[in-house]
Write a structure and sequence with these properties.
By secondary structure, the protein is an alpha+beta fold. It contains 19 helices and 13 strands. Strand 9 and strand 10 form a beta hairpin. Helix 4 packs across helix 5, helix 9 packs antiparallel against helix 10 and helix 11 crosses helix 15. The longest helix has about 35 residues. The radius of gyration is 24 Å and the shape is globular. The protein starts with a strand and ends with a helix. Keywords: Membrane, Transmembrane, Transmembrane helix. Pfam families: DUF1570 (PF07607).
Length: about 500
């Protein structure tokens, strides 16, 4: 069984969005020079005529004349006020300050470990480490504190490699020209350029390894702080990154043609995760081409303006820059979602949470990876962030009482009987939804189910006998399924995306 991240983008719809975004470049937007500061936390931008939304956290200026300026690390973005919604929220920084104050008031090791868990779930790894240090100061002999300190030492160390590992990856990929890069816990075979990427400000390989290490830290710290420390790998985990989507497609045609629809995948047998740069995908080709055209047009106008050949081009130049940055953000968010999904598959297998060779329940694999993935549509990303796309597919299938039942999901019929791409995406939605519920409400029983089901090898026949065994094991762990089903549906009715939560604010 190969674990993959199914492509969620409708390429035709994306193409129409790109075309519309480019058409907006001919619009002249008047930007006033006098600005009045609006203390805002979130800017939601909706290009007119599309169903796209881009959510941006940060500082916003509301300008006289009906325009908005947003300062992003890569530059300042300019929008028409009528296409934006500004929402005041409590920033993660403020929430962290409140949680830290609560831990300080508690003054116990457990209070600081609770703070550390909150930090991990909100992607604040540095602050989580600081909370663990505070717990040690309060109670250096605390068993849980000692465990977390031991994990910290391992996270910061580098696992040894060997020439055999590189040789095995090359034998799998069959490409001797690819280069090797290392981080503390990963070895990466890649063919990306060695020079700094103009957007990332570092080589693509280094950026990818940094992202993988962040997923590694979050995954291990989450389970350890919940009371379930996992086995740590004693050799680097193996990763391949293709610079070009076409090269990835050539590779999977020989391996498994069905993977052509995957944005990346993890192969348990070889214990290797395979990725390609999302920017090279034909689904994003329009974005890349439009971005180049915008950049060229912007530079041409700048030169013409300096020569005095045109006037009033400043508005177009600023707006073109805004669209370029939005396109970069869209692609980067997709990249992060794919990497966090597939890295979770690999981490679950190498930690023995979901045994690499003995656990073959697909909904559990995909549900866990979807739970840990950083959804591209979430305002602030962290573990368990609500994925708008996954939630949407869950809600569609929830109207079908049979295909949305717990029994249908846990026996993997939800995947085995998915006859088309839409049904596959709906299966991911159900697996994500059930795992989200069980992770938040019944983690102890879910861990027990994982361990009891680690009994099937790669050759297991997934027939009715196997389905009955899975269902029996699930019932042993969770009890009355009718009661659990009602609890699950009630939980999902209350689950909201960031956008839905913000829309409900007065």
């Amino acid at each position: 069984m190969v674990c993959s991240h199914s492509r969620l983008a409708d390429t035709r719809l994306l193409g129409s969005k790109v075309a519309y975004l480019f058409s907006l470049c001919v619009v002249v937007i008047g930007l006033a020079t006098t600005a009045k500061r609006a203390v805002a936390d979130l800017l939601i931008y909706s290009p007119p005529g599309t169903d796209m939304t881009v959510q941006l956290m940060g500082n916003v200026d509301v300008n006289v004349g009906g325009t908005i300026s947003y300062r992003h690390p890569r530059g300042t973005l300019h929008f028409s006020a009528q296409d934006c919604k500004i929402v005041r929220t409590t920033s993660t920084k403020k929430l962290y300050a409140n949680e830290r104050l609560e831990a300080k008031r508690g003054g116990t090791a457990d209070a600081y470990l609770k703070l550390a868990l909150w930090c991990v779930e909100h992607a604040l790894i540095k602050q989580a480490d600081e909370a663990i240090k505070e717990a040690w100061k309060v109670d250096p002999d605390n068993r849980r504190v000692k465990l977390m300190l031991a994990l910290t030492r391992y996270r910061r160390g580098t696992v040894p490699s060997s020439p055999n590992i590189e040789e095995e990856i090359r034998a799998f990929v069959k490409n001797e020209d690819m280069k090797v890069a290392r981080s503390r816990h990963f070895i990466l075979l890649h063919d990306t350029p060695e020079n700094d990427d103009p957007i990332l400000k570092m080589p693509v390989s280094r950026y990818r390894l940094q992202l993988l290490e962040k997923v590694y830290d979050s995954f291990y710290m989450k389970y350890a702080l919940e009371g379930y420390p996992l086995k740590v790998p004693r050799e680097p985990m193996r990763v391949v990154l293709f610079n070009n989507h076409g090269d990835y497609l050539n590779f999977v045609r020989l391996l498994d043609p069905s993977l052509k629809m995957a944005s990346g995948f993890y192969s348990p047998k070889e214990n290797i995760a395979i990725y390609y740069q999302q920017r090279s995908d034909h689904a994003f080709a329009g974005l890349s081409e439009t971005s180049k055209m915008l950049s060229q047009s912007r530079e041409s106008l700048k030169r013409a303006q300096l020569r005095g050949e045109v006037s009033g081009a400043g508005e177009f130049i600023r707006f073109a820059k805004t669209l370029e940055l939005i396109m970069d953000i869209i692609v980067e968010d997709e990249e992060i979602e794919v990497v966090t999904h597939e890295a979770t598959h690999q981490l679950a297998a190498n930690s023995d949470l979901l045994s690499r060779e003995r656990f073959q329940v697909r909904w559990a694999h995909e549900g866990l990876a979807s739970y840990f993935e950083a959804p591209k549509d979430a305002t602030w990303s962290g573990i368990g962030a609500v994925n708008e796309t996954r939630l949407g597919y869950y809600r569609i299938l929830a109207l079908d009482p049979e295909r949305s039942s717990i029994e249908y999901v846990v026996t993997d019929r939800i995947f085995d009987e998915a006859g088309d791409h839409f049904s596959q995406l709906a299966a991911y939605g159900q697996a994500w939804a059930l795992t989200h519920f069980l992770m938040e409400k019944h983690l102890d029983k879910l861990i027990e189910f994982y361990r009891k089901m680690a009994v099937d090898d790669f050759e297991t026949t997934r027939d009715e006998v196997w389905q009955a065994k899975v269902l029996k094991t699930f019932k042993q762990c969770f009890g009355d399924l009718e009661k659990l089903d009602l609890e699950w549906r009630s939980y999902m009715q209350g689950l909201r995306t960031d956008a839905e939560k913000l829309a409900a604010q007065p």
